[in-house]
Amino acid sequence: MNTPPAERETIFFYNFPDHPLPTRVLDVTANPPKLVITANLSQKDERYIALSHCWGPSQPLRTLKMNIGLHQDGIDLSSMPQTFKDAVAVTRYLGMRYIWIDSLCIVQDDVLDWEYEAARMADVYGFAYLVLGASSASDGTKGFLGRRHYSGGSVTVPCSASPRKFSKIHYRPVLNHRKALFYANFDGPLSERGWAFQERALAKRFVSFGEFELQWACRSLEDCECDEFDLRKSQRSPESSKSGWTTTSSQDCGEKN
User: Fold this and answer.
1) Rounded to the nearest 5°, which phi and psi values hold at 146?
2) Count of H helices and E strands in the chain?
């Protein structure tokens, strides 16, 4: 990323005010990870990550009235769909303790709990330290840390540092980014879901694990691996937000999950 060091520090390490944790989070420092009721914690304003993902036709692992106690004891990683495994891996890699995943942190067959938590979604995604977008995964079984799906190639060029006097350089095509990450499509099925649009628009920091590359956005800029997506905060506008929502909602076409 070619962002100047001072701006990188602003983007990734700016200390937003701490806010209370959601009602439940997954503690990934435990082995296996376990569901935590945050009201029972002494420290209730720690940072957490939130996952934005597609459920798809296959129902992901869910917390229900019958298993919430078991989930508080621990959730075996082998029982989690690949998208959840990847999200836990990223959370651990970043040194974070908690992650919020909707199907695990909301009791799915408790109407009152679901309604209460649904009304707090803006806070969950808005207060998260980082939102992970499983953009390339059409459902929970796909995961988002696999191989990239882009075509590329390699060329052989003279190289005095190589014993063979030649070296192979691999390349990839520059992607065609259409509009801002926050307000329009990024690559992958998640971009076609209306609620996912809201989740990334609310996020302080959003990282999209797409089919072709990583894209990231915060309150300062938006950028990507191929460096053709550099959009400064000043370039955003209410018009781009409205246009992005119109595009996304038309693609969603009323699909669920």
Assistant:
1) -80, -165
2) 8, 11
Residue whose pair of structure tokens reads 């229900």 in the numeric block: 64
- Pick from 99, 135, 125, 123: nearest CA to 207: 135
At 233, list the tokens: 């905060």
Q: Are 19 and 123 in contact (CB under 8 A)?
A: yes
- Helix-strand-coil split of the chain, %, nearest 5: 30, 20, 50
Amino acid letter for position 178 = R
| CA–CA gap between residue 73 and residue 53 (Å, rounded) | 25
Which residues are 133's β-sheet partners? 52, 208
Please return the burial class of 164, using the count of CB atoms within 10 Å of its CB with bins 0-12, 13-18 and 19+. Answer: exposed
Is the pLDDT at 86 greater than 70, yes or no? yes
Q: Could you give the CA distance from residue 161 to residue 111 in angstroms, rounded to a whole number?
A: 66
pLDDT in tens, 198-240: 777 788 898 988 877 788 888 777 777 766 555 554 445 555 5
Residue 235 has, within 13 A of its CA and on its CB side, a CA count of: 13
